Amino acid sequence: MSAHVKSFAAVDLGASSGRVMVGRVGPEALELTEAHRFPNGPVRVPEGLRWDILSLYAGVLDGLRAAGQVDSVGIDSWAVDYGLLDADGALLGNPVHYRDARTEGVAEEVWATVSAAELYAATGLQYAPFNTLYQLTAARSTAQLAAAERLLLVPDLLAYWLTGEAGTEITNASTTQLIDPRTRDWSHDLADRLGIDLELFAPLRQPGDPAGLLLPRVLEETGLSGPVPVTTVGSHDTASAVAAVPAAGERFAYICTGTWSLAGLELERPVLTEASRAANFSNELGLDGTVRYLRNIMGLWLLQECVREWGQPDLGELLRAAAEVPALRSVVDAGDAAFLAPGRMPERIADACRESGQPVPESCAEITRCILDSLALAHRRAIREAEALADHPVDVVHIVGGGTRNELLCQLTADACGLPVVAGPAEAAALGNVLVQARAHGLVGDRTSMRRLLARTQPLRRYEPRGDAPAWRAAEDRLTRP
Question: Is 351 a catalytic residue?
Answer without folding.
Answer: no
